[in-house]
Specification:
Shape: globular
Radius of gyration: 24 Å
Largest sheet: 5 strands, parallel
Order of helices and strands: HEHHEHEHEHEHEEEEEEEHEHHHHE
Number of helices: 12
Number of strands: 14
Distance between the termini: 62 Å
Strand content: 15-25%
Length: 414
């Protein structure tokens, strides 16, 4: 079943820490109006199942209108072989280029090497030649290019095979990609270290893959963090530190207004700079919550007692005056809900695009059976306005909204 949802890295692509980048900051290669195309095999295509990378990068740039197109194709290589359908490798390569040009990219994320590494270091020269050929062709477009290194395999223990041999091979391909990026002066995003652990021992409980090869939802959530860090974009810090009189001692990640002491406590309006990092997926390890900064609210000097913290009139949490003075973590509220809705809508957009560029009945629409139903091919471009409508909704959802916070006493203490 083809599920689509997000993507990525895309924007990741451009960062101060990226090797070969000639920019002074992480945003120099990611610009307002960019169309980021993700190109590669299974790792790229499966991003659509979860959407964490695209969601994180979209939310981290609320002031930039950046759109994404996922052209990943499971099993693909630099030759485009997986895209050949019923044709030959030349047909697959032509389709790769045709689909990419049709997507009108300004940034292309190129992620190959994972499948080729199965052939061992002996075939490295062939891979390098193929990647250079592809980059030469992509260089004829106006898009900026960014390379992505393949991931290691994760050791999940028997009955799955040990990953040591593959990991030794993929390390050679990774080094070749890094060297090629340096020689071409291209940015590169190195994901090799995302999968950690000892090849001789099974991974711990916080494993990142479903089967040692493919990232799980939790794995893609972690990949989104890794990518943001590689790009020099940490998950946003959110801190509100006020006293009972409304005086600010420390505020980060948001702008406060209408800060007003009340008979029951305190009220203020917050307008965040960016949405928070997406919450970890369901069934993630308990340690996941410690991997991104919490939204911390601290109010000192309140009258002794128990308080409710309400956001737009809805209770987000209850805490004592002592707990509020030490600082409490806000895990509920409209912002986590908004970022999750953003992720869902990105998934819907990617599904629409998937059916636009890879219709399931393309044999009847465009290939050797088009004499039967080829007249229906005129309906495929009808996906375009639906995609545009979805992107307009995404552009709206990426913008933080103003919210009213109220700290109200519910039980006074002597």
């Amino acid at each position: 079943m083809r599920i689509l949802c997000s993507c990525l890295l895309l924007t990741l692509l451009l960062v101060s820490s990226a090797r070969g980048a000639d920019a002074e900051n992480g945003d120099a290669l990611l610009r307002d109006g960019d169309r980021v195309v993700l190109l590669g095999g299974t790792f790229i295509e499966r991003m659509q199942m979860y959407g964490y990378v695209e969601t994180a990068l979209t939310a981290l740039h609320p002031d930039k209108d950046i759109t994404f197109r996922n052209l990943g194709w499971s099993g693909d290589e630099v030759s485009g072989v997986a895209r050949a359908v019923f044709g030959n490798t030349d047909n697959g390569y032509k389709r790769l280029i045709d689909d990419l040009v049709a997507a009108k990219p300004t940034v292309i994320l190129v992620a190959y090497g994972a499948n080729e590494a199965y052939r061992g270091p002996e075939q490295l020269e062939q891979f390098s030649a193929g990647l250079n050929r592809l980059l030469d062709r992509l260089g004829e477009t106006p898009a900026r290019l960014v390379l992505l290194t393949p991931l290691r395999h994760e050791n999940l223990g028997a009955p799955l095979p040990p990953p040591a041999q593959y990991n030794q091979s993929v390390a050679v391909y990774r080094d070749a990609i890094l060297n090629l990026a340096e020689s071409r002066k291209l940015p590169v995003l190195d994901l090799y270290s995302l999968i950690s652990g000892d090849d001789a021992s099974p991974a711990p409980i916080d494993r990142l893959t479903d089967n040692g090869l493919h990232l799980s939802g939790y794995g893609y959530w972690r990949a989104a963090q890794h990518i943001a860090q590689e790009l020099g974009r940490e998950p946003p810090k959110w801190t509100v530190d006020l006293d009972a009189a409304g005086k600010s001692r420390d505020t980060a990640g948001t702008t406060l207004s209408d800060v007003t002491p009340t008979a029951l406590g305190l009220r203020f309006v917050a307008h965040d700079a960016a949405l928070p990092f997406p919450p970890a997926p369901k069934y993630s390890p308990e340690s996941a919550g410690r991997l991104i900064p919490s939204r911390e609210l601290r109010i000192t000097g309140l009258a002794a007692g128990d308080y409710d913290v309400l956001i737009d009139g809805r209770k987000a949490l209850s805490a004592s005056s002592d707990e509020l003075a030490r600082g409490v973590a806000l895990t509920a509220g409209p912002e986590p809900s908004q970022i999750e809705r953003l992720r869902r809508e990105i998934g819907k957009k990617n599904e629409l695009f998937f059916h636009r560029y890879r219709p399931q009945n393309e044999t009847y629409l465009f290939l050797f059976r088009k004499h039967e139903q080829g007249n229906n091919a005129v309906e495929i471009p009808m996906f375009d306005p639906l995609i545009e409508q979805q992107e307009a909704l995404i552009a709206k959802l990426r913008q933080p909204e103003k919210h009213t916070y109220e700290i109200k006493i519910t039980r006074a203490k002597p």
